[in-house]
Amino acid sequence: MSARKQRSTGGSLVELVVIVVVALGLALGIQAFLVKPYRIPSESMVPTLEVGQRVLVNRLSNRFGEPKVGNIVVFHPPAGSETDTCGDPSRREGEACDRPTSQRSDVNFIKRVVGQPGDTIAIRSGHVYRNGKREPDSYISDTCQGDLGRGCNLPVPIKVPAGHWFMMGDNRGESDDSRFWGPVPRGWIIGPAFATYWPPDRIGIL
User: Mind telling me the catalytic residues?
Assistant: First the structure.
């Protein structure tokens, strides 16, 4: 092989390596700062999101705006969420948890925002009553029919603290959420899910 061909081959390999490195860097950068894929791990958001379905989370919008009631968001729950640890040990019977523990869990959850800072929240038959009015909720499951589901009736109103958001799954009788471990501080919210991309028959905007 001539020296010219060797230089050409070597240059092509270097160019390919640079392209791969740049592509990986862009992909990692997009996931870190812009858009991140997320797999639905449980039935807590049925029927809106099924187990195994995949969504895209907008990390950038979370830096410029506050979460809105109705948004589906990915976030870190409080430490102890696996065992329903509430930061307010004095809460009464029939009352949702109004304060998270001070430590953040490393796991990611996906739920719907049902209350924002300053709102009062009560739960009756799985329906959210925000500031005394029932929220529209045609998207929820019927697992609270007959009031048999866990956490379906928490009628004593609680107030969402400043800088916190109250999260609930759409599968109201089968969801571990803010009812049991408290509202979520702003800094623990990763971003809103804005689209689903898998499986193909459920591709769409959320």
Answer: 44, 111
